[in-house]
Structure formats: structure tokens, C-alpha cells
């Protein structure tokens, strides 16, 4: 936005612990010695929220934190603006130690550095769209006229032109969350915290919103922390993804890392049903090769997804393509076989998948088992 | 076995001494500080007199138009306006105009005082469990203690007249204002409050922009209840010299004038309904944004 110089702020979270309950500090040592979440709850009645979480979030990127309910993801995002106080650990935002801020400085930090979008929208029901969008700006204080102008610009950017005077109750869920997004963006904070922002929306609206967020992010280049329980959403939005389980980070990495090299069975079980062709990029599976040996074949840019690559190769024929970077420099080559294997998750490179490839050979077993079932049913 | 059937009690002499001691102490207190305490309430007296003069001295057609205008502003409903006008005209026609205006004046002043005192107390209660624990039993006492009991010390301190009347009415009518303000603020959606925190609201901004506006429908219900309870006190207040519709009712009780009692009683009911409809309609209009549904 023109009124404030682009300011990018990264977030460094190190060794963050959160234990809910009285005298939480006394149990940090026990945790370090390997006490589990279940033991802590059973013996002391305390709930372990976060267990030694360290994440480095680079400025200007979308960082997705993914986990199922109870994994601590909402607790984690609330530590960044200190809506929840940690039991131990450190949070550095743009070089500033968030945990050392006094009440006054913390308010200023929340006003100017972070903005938040909520799962349940959390709009003010007695204010219309424009007044809701103005909310963060009003709290910052300053020139009302410029605030209004800025709010109107964001309202139209999120596609709510003409709805300025409607009340939240008059809007659908998707439109309400657009207001939530406009409110957060209008405050011009370099960090955007999105707590399951699209989880309450139905699938079509959700993917619209994801698309809009991606477009807006290309313009504003904020540091976005996005919480979700939906792996597809995580893969679609995240530059970096951290997977949380029982308050611990199980894996951190790019979408390619998560899909191709799941750190353990837990992550693998998530990744199993992902549409791999839409996520994996050709540069992640290509055979790096000596550019000189590359024959003039069809070219694929490195960020092409497998689906798109397969389609192109079918259209243009040929068995092999050369993968090139943004400047047309060859990086390696990729074959149709490689693409097909990667799509179904078969092969040694991405290892942990084992059942998928053989399942199609089940008919023998299937027919052998088949007679048993009708028999069982007949007995009843 | 006498102690089983007759409750063992303090002996009569000791009990008499306790009562006498307390009475004497309070009487001394009244004699010493009575005047200065009366001085303290002089502004209230002034306000009451001004308000009453305004209502009784203004020509009745003006007052009726004013009431009709208020009814329209609050409800935007012609039936409410018509009901207000008809009731007031009937009251005037049956020669109860002056008494009614005196009563309305006292209700208005009592309600304003109850709001001004009650809202901050309710807000304080909503912010602190400890304050809530202290105030709740006090409110219970105020609501259940027979009004005559606290009329005694008030009359001893301030004599009879408007001011002690208003004090008695406020004591009786303020609890719903306090309770419903407290409740309304406590019921404000936690998600919205979290959003206010996340955007860096100060406590005052949170109260002004989020808590009070969202609690307002509940607070308005408290105002409505306060008005109704104030009206219920009119007859009792007339026993300590408050003029208005209560005095004819009192006279009717003493002399068994059935019709006099009925007319004045109905006049109280009439203005109660006017107050109720207007304040409820206003409370509803405050929630208009909740009723507009997404089509």
C-alpha cells in the first residue's frame, strides 16, 4: 500500500512450551525428560498445548501450520500476538522479543504489526461492512478520511463493492469472511494471522477465498501464518508447511517435501489421499542432467505440476521433456514414466508408500474371500 | 424440656438494651449529620422540583405531543403512538393529569438515577468476580427487604418528601439495572472480544466499541424492568409524602373509596404500559441489525 513503506517482518519461534493449568512451570523439566502429553494429564491434570515448538517463518511468505483438532495449532498462532501466554520459550517478530513487551507496547504491537482473521469471523454485529473494516484503523487512531478511503479500497479488493452498508447478519459466511479479511488487511500490518479462516466455509467458496488470498498475497507480500486442518488447503497456500501433532512439530518443509518425503507414518497417512498430480512439480522428480546432453525436446518450466506436464506431453507427443528454469536454462529431464510413478506414489525415491502400487493385484484375494460373505449373511 | 418447645432466646432485658442502643446510636447520628446529609441531596431535590414543574406547568397538549413524538422515535409504530395519546387523554379527562405528571416526573428522575448509578456498578461487576461476589448479596437484600424497613432510616435522616421517596424507589428499582448490565456484558461473544484484543483495543475501547453495544439489548431490558419496579413503588412512596397517583390510592385504601382507587390504579397501569412499550420498542430497534437476515 502506498501510505506505508513496505515493511517485511519475519517470525522466529524457538523452544515454545505451553502447559495449561496451575503451576505449569514446575513440569517443564519432566517434559524435557520425556514425559508425554497423556502422562502429564493423568498424573497432574495438566493439558500440554505445545511441546518444544521451534519454527522459523521467513518474511513475505505463507506459512501454513497444519494439524487435527487438539494438535495445538490454534494455541500456537495465538502465541504470536500473545493472546495466549507461553509457559516457556521465545518469540521474535521482526527482531523484537514479543514476550518482553509490556501491556502498552503489546497493544501497539497488535495494532500495527499483526492482524488476525478468525474461523468464526468475529465481526461486530452492530456495525456494517464499512464500519467493521474500519475497526482496526479506528483503534490505531489517526485521520478518519484516509481510513475510510483505505477501507473502501480493501472492501472492493475482496469483492464486496456495494455491500458497504450491509450488516454481517445479511451476508453469507463467505462474504462475512471477506469482511474479516478486509478488516485485517486494512490495518496494514506486515503479519497476517489466519486461524482456520476458511474452515467454516463450504468447499467452492473456500477455494475462491484461497485463490483470492493467493492473488492478494502476490501484491502485498505479507508474512502470513495460516492455520488449517485441511492438507489440500495447506498444500495449495503454503510456501512452508509445518505439521503439528499433540503439540509437537512432526515435519516442516515445502509442499514438495511433505508430499514426496513424509517424515513419518502420521504424515504419510495424511498425504496418502492427496491429489499428487496437482501438487508435485516436475523439478521435484526430474533427473538432474548435464544440459549439454539435452536434445531439443519439449520444454517444461520447473514449476509445472505433474498434471499439467502430463497433459502437455500427451499433446505434443514424445516420451521425455527437458525441465527449464525461469530463464530457459535446462535443469534436468523428466519422462512420462517418472511422472506416472510420482502421480500414484510408486517408487523408491519417495519411499514410504508401499500398499498403493500393489492394490490393483488384489482380485485373486478378492475372489477367494468373496464366497465367505454371502454365507455369513445367510446364517443370520 | 421447656427449651425444646420454646426457642432459647436472649433474655428480654438484654434484647431491649440492644435495640435501644442501636436506636439511640442512629438517632444521635441523625441529629449530628442529618443536616449535612440533607445538604448533600439538595441537587437531587432541585432536579426533582425542576422536572415536576416542567411536566405540570407545560400546557397539556404540548406534553401529549412530546410523548407521542418520543413514542414515534422509539417505536416507529403508529399503534404505539395512538395508544400513548389515548391513554394520556383518558387520564386527563378523568381529572388525574396533575397527579400523573408528578408520578411521571418521579419515575423519570428515579430511572435516570438508577441508570447513572447502576450501569457503572454492573460494568464493574462484569469485570471482576470478586466485585460480583460482594454486590450480589447486597442486591438480594435490596430486592427482598420490605421497603418500609429502609423507609424508616431514610425518613429519620431526610424527613418526608420527594427526596426520601426517590431514594426508596431507587433502592428498590436499581437491582435489575445492575444485574442485567452485568449479565449483558458477560454474555458478549468471546470470539468478538478476542478479535478486539487481537486488534490491540484498550480496555476502554473494548468497552465502548464492543461490550456496551453488544450488551445494549440486555441493558435495555434492565432499564425496562427498572421503570416497571419504580412504578410499583409509587403507592408505597406516597406514604412518605411523595405526591402523585399514589396519594389518592392511599386515601382510597383508608376510606374504602373503590372507584377512586380503581381510577388511579388504572392510571398507574396506563403509564406503566406506555413506558414499557416505548422502552421495549427502542430496545428492539437497537437489535434491528440482528433481525435482517441474509437472503
List the helices and strands and how they pair.
The complex is a heterodimer of chains A (380) and B (295).
Chain A lengths: L10 E10 L7 H5 L4 H8 L2 E11 L4 E5 L6 H8 L7 E6 L2 E2 L5 H10 L1 E4 L11 H12 L3 H14 L15 H14 L4 E5 L7 H18 L2 E6 L2 H7 L2 E6 L2 E6 L1 H6 L4 H7 L4 H4 L2 H4 L1 E2 L9 E4 L4 H11 L3 E5 L5 E6 H9 L18 H7 L2 H8 L1
Helix pairs in contact in A: 5-6, 5-7, 6-7, 14-15
Chain B lengths: L1 H4 L6 H29 L1 H16 L2 H16 L2 H16 L3 H31 L1 H16 L2 H12 L3 H25 L3 H9 L4 H30 L1 H5 L7 H10 L2 H29 L1 H4 L4
What does this structure look like?
The complex is a heterodimer of chains A (380) and B (295). Chain A contains 17 helices and 14 strands. Helices cover 40% and strands 21% of the residues of chain A. The relative contact order of chain A is 0.10. Chain A folds into two domains: 186 residues, 3-Layer(aba) Sandwich (Rossmann fold), CATH 3.40.50.300; 88 residues, CBS domain Like (Alpha-Beta Complex). In chain A, strands 6-7-8-3-9-10 form a six-stranded mixed sheet, with helices on both faces. Chain A has a four-stranded antiparallel sheet with strand order 2-1-4-5. In chain A, strands 11-14-13-12 form a four-stranded mixed sheet. In chain A, helix 6 packs across helix 7. In chain A, strand 9 and strand 10 form a beta hairpin. Chain A is an alpha/beta fold and 380 residues long. Chain B is mainly α and 295 residues long. Chain B folds into two domains: 30 residues; 244 residues, MetI-like (MetI-like fold, Orthogonal Bundle). Chain A: Its main location: membrane.
Amino acid at each position: 500500500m502506498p501510505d506505508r513503506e513496505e515493511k517485511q517482518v519475519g517470525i522466529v519461534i524457538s523452544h515454545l512450551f505451553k502447559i495449561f493449568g496451575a503451576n505449569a512451570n514446575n513440569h517443564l523439566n519432566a517434559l524435557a525428560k520425556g514425559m508425554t502429553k497423556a502422562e502429564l494429564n493423568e498424573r497432574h491434570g495438566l493439558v500440554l498445548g505445545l511441546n518444544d515448538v521451534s519454527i522459523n517463518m521467513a518474511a513475505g511468505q505463507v506459512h501454513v501450520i497444519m494439524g487435527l483438532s487438539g494438535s495445538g495449532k490454534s494455541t500456537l498462532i495465538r502465541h504470536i500476538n500473545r493472546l495466549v501466554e507461553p509457559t516457556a520459550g521465545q518469540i521474535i517478530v521482526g527482531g523484537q522479543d514479543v514476550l518482553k513487551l509490556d501491556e502498552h507496547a503489546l497493544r501497539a504491537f497488535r495494532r500495527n504489526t499483526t492482524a488476525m482473521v478468525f474461523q468464526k469471523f468475529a465481526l461486530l454485529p452492530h456495525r456494517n461492512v464499512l464500519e467493521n473494516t474500519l475497526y482496526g484503523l479506528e483503534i490505531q487512531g489517526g485521520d478518519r478520511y484516509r481510513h475510510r478511503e483505505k477501507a473502501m479500497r480493501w472492501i472492493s479488493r475482496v469483492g464486496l463493492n456495494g455491500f458497504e452498508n450491509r450488516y454481517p447478519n445479511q451476508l453469507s459466511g463467505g462474504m462475512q469472511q471477506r469482511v474479516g479479511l478486509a478488516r485485517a488487511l486494512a490495518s496494514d500490518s506486515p503479519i497476517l494471522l489466519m486461524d482456520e479462516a476458511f474452515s467454516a466455509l463450504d468447499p467452492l467458496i473456500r477455494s475462491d477465498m484461497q485463490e483470492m488470498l493467493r492473488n492478494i498475497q502476490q501484491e502485498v507480500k505479507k508474512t502470513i501464518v495460516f492455520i488449517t486442518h485441511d492438507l489440500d488447503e495447506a498444500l495449495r497456500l503454503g510456501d512452508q508447511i509445518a505439521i503439528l501433532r499433540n503439540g509437537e512439530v512432526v515435519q516442516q518443509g515445502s509442499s514438495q517435501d511433505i508430499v514426496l518425503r513424509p517424515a513419518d507414518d502420521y504424515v504419510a497417512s495424511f498425504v496418502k489421499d492427496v491429489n499428487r498430480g496437482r501438487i508435485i512439480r516436475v523439478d521435484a522428480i526430474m533427473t538432474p542432467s548435464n544440459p549439454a546432453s539435452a536434445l531439443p525436446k519439449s520444454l517444461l518450466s520447473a514449476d509445472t505440476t505433474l498434471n499439467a506436464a502430463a497433459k502437455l506431453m500427451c499433446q505434443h507427443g514424445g516420451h521425455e521433456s527437458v525441465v527449464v528454469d525461469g530463464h530457459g536454462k535446462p535443469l534436468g529431464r523428466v519422462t512420462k514414466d517418472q511422472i506416472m510413478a510420482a502421480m500414484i506414489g510408486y517408487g523408491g525415491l519417495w519411499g514410504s508408500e508401499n500398499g498403493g502400487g500393489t492394490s490393483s493385484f488384489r482380485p485373486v484375494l478378492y475372489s477367494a474371500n468373496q464366497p465367505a460373505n454371502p454365507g455369513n449373511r445367510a446364517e443370520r | 424440656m421447656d427449651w425444646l418447645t420454646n426457642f432459647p432466646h436472649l433474655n428480654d432485658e438484654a434484647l431491649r438494651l440492644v435495640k435501644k442502643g442501636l436506636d439511640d446510636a442512629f438517632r444521635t447520628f441523625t441529629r449530628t449529620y442529618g443536616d449535612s446529609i440533607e445538604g448533600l441531596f439538595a441537587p437531587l431535590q432541585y432536579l426533582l422540583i425542576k422536572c415536576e414543574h416542567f411536566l405540570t406547568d407545560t400546557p397539556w397538549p404540548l406534553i401529549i405531543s412530546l410523548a407521542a413524538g418520543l413514542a414515534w422515535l422509539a417505536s416507529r409504530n403508529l399503534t404505539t403512538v395512538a395508544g400513548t395519546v389515548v391513554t394520556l387523554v383518558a387520564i386527563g379527562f378523568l381529572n388525574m393529569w396533575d397527579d400523573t405528571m408528578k408520578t411521571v416526573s418521579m419515575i423519570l428522575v428515579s430511572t435516570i438515577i438508577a441508570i447513572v448509578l447502576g450501569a457503572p456498578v454492573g460494568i464493574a461487576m462484569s469485570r471482576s468476580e470478586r466485585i460480583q461476589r460482594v454486590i450480589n448479596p447486597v442486591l438480594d437484600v435490596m430486592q427482598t427487604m420490605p421497603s418500609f424497613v429502609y423507609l424508616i432510616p431514610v425518613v429519620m435522616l431526610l424527613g418526608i418528601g420527594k427526596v426520601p421517596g426517590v431514594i426508596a424507589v431507587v433502592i428498590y428499582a436499581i437491582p435489575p439495572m445492575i444485574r442485567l448490565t452485568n449479565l449483558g456484558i458477560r454474555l458478549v461473544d468471546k470470539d468478538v472480544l478476542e478479535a478486539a484484543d487481537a486488534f490491540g483495543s484498550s480496555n476502554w475501547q473494548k468497552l465502548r466499541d464492543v461490550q456496551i453495544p453488544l450488551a445494549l439489548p440486555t441493558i435495555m431490558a434492565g432499564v425496562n424492568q427498572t421503570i416497571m419496579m419504580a412504578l410499583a413503588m409509587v403507592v408505597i412512596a406516597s406514604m412518605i409524602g411523595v405526591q402523585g397517583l399514589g396519594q389518592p390510592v392511599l386515601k382510597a385504601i383508608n376510606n374504602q373509596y373503590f372507584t377512586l382507587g380503581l381510577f388511579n390504579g388504572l392510571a398507574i397501569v396506563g403509564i406503566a404500559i406506555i413506558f414499557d412499550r416505548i422502552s421495549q420498542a427502542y430496545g428492539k430497534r437497537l437489535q434491528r441489525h440482528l433481525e435482517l437476515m441474509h437472503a
